[in-house]
């Protein structure tokens, strides 16, 4: 089953942000996590964003090579 929310990421990559109103299928969607009552697609993207932020912090703390 395809998730209609995945198209949001595609639209944001085009450098023309649009506020798309898509209906989340919730329990009828394969991406829905019933125990957590949230979409796994959204949860994964939030976790990846947090990982990116932590990697940026680590990169800024690393000493730079002097030439």
Report what the structure shows.
It is a single chain. The protein is mainly α. The protein has a domain at 27-62. The chain has helices spanning 6-13, 40-61; strands spanning 32-33, 38-39. It has a two-stranded antiparallel sheet with strand order 1-2. The longest helix is centred in the C-terminal third of the chain and has 22 residues, at 40-61. The radius of gyration is 17 Å and the shape is elongated. It starts with 5 loop residues before the first helix and ends in a 6-residue tail after the last helix.
Helix content: 40-55%
Mean pLDDT over all positions: 77
| Strand portion | 5-15%
Cα Rg: 17 Å
Distance between the termini: 53 Å
Number of strands: 2
- Low-confidence blocks of residues: none
Number of helices: 2
Q: Which structural category do the helix and sheet elements fall into? A: mainly alpha
Largest sheet properties: 2 strands, antiparallel
Order of helices and strands: HEEH
> Which term fits the overall shape?
elongated
Strand order, largest beta sheet = 1-2
Brief description of this entry?
The protein contains two helices and two strands; from the N terminus they run αββα.
Features:
6% strand; 67 residues; 2 helices; elongated; two-stranded antiparallel sheet; mainly alpha
Would you spell out the secondary-structure blueprint of this structure?
Blueprint: H1 6-13, E1 32-33, E2 38-39, H2 40-61
Antiparallel strand pairs: 1-2
């Amino acid at each position: 089953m395809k998730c209609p929310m995945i198209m949001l990421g595609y639209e944001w990559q085009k450098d023309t942000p649009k506020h798309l109103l898509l209906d989340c299928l919730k329990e009828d969607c394969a991406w829905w996590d019933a125990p957590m009552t949230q979409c796994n697609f959204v949860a994964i993207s939030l976790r990846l964003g947090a990982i990116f932020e932590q990697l940026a912090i680590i990169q800024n703390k690393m000493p730079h090579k002097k030439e």
